[in-house]
Amino acid sequence: MRAGRAGRATAVLGALLGALLLGGCDADGEPAAPRTESTATADGPSPATPTAPTAGTPGAPATGDPTPPDPGPTGTAPPPSPRATSPAATLVRVTRSGGFAGRTGTLVVGDDGSWTRLDGRAKKVGWGQLTAPQLVALRAALREADFARLPRASKSGTVFDGFTYAFAHGGFEVATGDGSVPMALTRVLDALPPFED
């Protein structure tokens, strides 16, 4: 009787082990290691190489998963993006020299109405922003001045302790001085921010 029970227990245990091995699990219920196959060559058996698990078996990669993008070489940074803002293009540049103190100063006004004041060494000594009406008035004065038709230099006489001016606008440069500043350029000077505080 006991021999029959022992035989049945051995048969059941053998069947369970066979099912576990065929089902891809080891005796502890964990996924079994990939099967290896060896092939014989003239020099003898070659080392065993693991076979890739097929889809649907434990340890196989899931199908349809997106492949992560290649991050590229390590240690490289992405190219810098263009700056969102850039300095405004110059609307007009006027340099004033002379006067009682013999100083030189330059005003640079951008298309957006921002302005910068520079000293004789081109060092920034002031800045600001024209209001919308001030910018409209300056644009109108520059348009009416018609730089393309103005003489490149106009000087009818020297004014003692007077100023000389060099205007640059729209690709044209005009030089003039107190006593001979055309009325159109006087309007431009009136529309500019002050040369000094």
Task: Please write out the topology.
Blueprint: H1 2-22, E1 36-37, E2 40-41, E3 44-45, E4 49-50, E5 90-98, E6 103-110, E7 114-118, E8 124-129, H2 132-145, E9 153-154, E10 163-169, E11 172-177, H3 183-191
Parallel strand pairs: 9-11
Antiparallel strand pairs: 1-4, 2-3, 5-6, 5-10, 6-7, 7-8, 10-11
Helix pairs in contact: 2-3
Let me know the average pLDDT: 73
Q: Residue share in helices?
A: 10-25%
What is the SS-derived class? Answer: alpha+beta
Fraction in beta strands: 25-35%
The helix/strand series, from N terminus to C terminus, equals HEEEEEEEEHEEEH
Please provide a written account of the structure:
The chain has 197 residues and is of the alpha+beta class. The chain is built from 3 helices and 11 strands; from the N terminus they run αββββββββαβββα. It has helices spanning 2-22, 132-145, 183-191; strands spanning 36-37, 40-41, 44-45, 49-50, 90-98, 103-110, 114-118, 124-129, 153-154, 163-169, 172-177. It has a 7-stranded mixed sheet, with no helix packed on it. Strands 1-4 form a two-stranded antiparallel sheet. The radius of gyration is 44 Å and the shape is globular. The protein starts with a helix and ends in a 6-residue tail after the last helix.
Please give a handful of descriptors for the protein shown.
alpha+beta; 26% strand; single chain; globular; 3 helices; 7-stranded mixed β-sheet; 11 strands; two-stranded antiparallel ribbon; 197 residues
